[in-house]
Specification:
Blueprint (H helix, E strand, L loop, with lengths): L3 H18 L4 E4 L6 H10 L1 E4 L3 H15 L4 E4 L3 H4 L2 H10 L3 E7 L25 E3 L10 H16 L6 E7 L35 H12 L4 E5 L7 H11 L3 E3 L14 H4 L3 H6 L4 E5 L6 H6 L5 E6 L13 E4 L2 H11 L6 H23 L5 H11 L5 E4 L3 H9 L7 E4 L9 H10 L5 E6 H6 L14 E7 L17 H6 L6 H7 L4 E2 L7 H11 L2 E7 L2 H19 L1
Parallel strand pairs: 1-2, 1-3, 3-4, 4-6, 5-6, 7-8, 7-9, 9-10, 10-11, 12-13, 12-14, 14-15, 15-17, 16-17
Helix pairs in contact: 1-2, 1-6, 3-5, 3-16, 7-12, 8-12, 13-21, 14-15, 14-20
Length: about 575
Amino acid sequence: MTDPSSASSGLVAAMVDEWVRAGVTHAFVSPGSRSTPLALAVAQRMNVEVVLDERSAAFHALGYGKVTGRPAVLVCTSGTAAANYYPAVKEADLSSVPMIVCTADRPPELRDTGAPQAMDQQQLYGSAVRWFVDPGVPADHPGAGSFWRSLGARTVAEAAGADPGPVHLNLPFREPFLTDAEPADYPGRADGAPWTRFSDSGSLRADPADTTAFVERINATERGLLLLGQDPAIDFATVARFEAATGWPVLADPLSGMRTVDSITTYDALARCEDWIAAHRPEMVVRLGRPLTSKAVGLWLESDVHQVIVSPRRTFVDPHRTAAVSIVAEPRWLLGNAAENVHRGAHDWMAEWMVAEGRARSAIDTTLDAAAVLTEPRIARDVAAAAPEGTRILLGSSMPVRDVESFAAGRHGVDFMSNRGANGIDGMVSTAMGMAIGSTRPTIALIGDIGFLHDTNGLLMAADRGVDVTLVVVDNDGGGIFSFLPQAGHTRFEQLFGTPHGADIPAIAAAHGVPVVAPTEPDVVATAVEESVAAGGVRLIHLRTDRHANVDVHQQIWNAVREAVE
């Protein structure tokens, strides 16, 4: 093979074959001409979803990677198409979600010449990617097959390694694009294995001195807490053993996957009870995963509390700068070791937290059940409770994730997820679609109206994808979270922050062939969720609330909890 098109097809044929050998099965392709060689190659070997909007496609890939732990391949043409991937690439970076981003590009002779659809795509995503490579315009030469296969194998290894995340392949192609090169033209390993197998067990044991100091400090501390945030890298059994051995309460964010009936779920409300929380200040806190979503807890745990971060990766997750120690180790191993060497059992400290949990939970439920109209805290509580076992729930990054953390009780059998890396509200519908494509389990997305409107393109062809997604859209006609901030009293608040939109969300959904129900009574929300999931397909539950009254509802709950525990 000597012509450019044959070399281009040879590169993508060998590279895609390596991806398939490494277990990559799905690609999200947006239409374009310059990406023709790669689009044809993935369509021949993989499950392909065509998504017209590149930004939406990237969030589809994000959702897919969240639920499978495997990278999906993104394919787009050159120019601004590639730029539209950036929000999801950044979220994948900060949330450690694997992703293979392939941007077609003009060859060097067409760059900086005014050629159409050409821009600088080198290092387009900066430090957001685990690895960037531009192999140049493909050229067939001795050893080209080894280079291309090695490139494909390393791509998967970089994306799905010990610190998973996005990789970026910028692929310049020359015309013509259509040839018939096959993987067999550049043979891979005879046994079907990847060209290069990367071994990374991910097993990390802490330094022996750090382990000893960690266990000794726990042994000497009765008033301790275990905080579990998003991605805690630990299992239920180890948490239960640690809790039983230490007698420490477990404060578990829903995003940790560890929030059960045995954990403290009302910590956000308790942290607002000044007298109670002052009397229950811990002496030591062990933190796993990202910080809790609750701002109140973050402000309560100041630097004079001895805080230890345990993470399998050398990452800095300490926004309040309060940690005294950061241990790079496998949390399962380190806490399991501590559970074997600490034997104190339950005591008054744990009992006092559990009593407060019971009183706070009762106050929350009583207040919510007394309201005769739809309220956002009750919607969050009831959706979380009504989701059938096995469901995955995507929470909007604004109020939904906070309301579920604050008001939902612990339970088993449901996975809560959210784009809390960069915390953007964009791409929520598309992320939910990608989650459903990557799983046979039903998906529920609890999102706000602004988040829904920001990503209505995620509904394109939704009815034809054969997935089960229930979109629960809380519509308060604007940006509800801003009403909790100091600028809420500003004279231009509505114009700049409240931003009422007046959009007819049911009509938008209907235009995409998505069935809509719109309950108005709080008692029927749970039933609507159960029926929607049971019916299958893509459906929308539209819930109207009042964002001005929403602030008052939250305050009523916090007051009720304060009265109950103090």
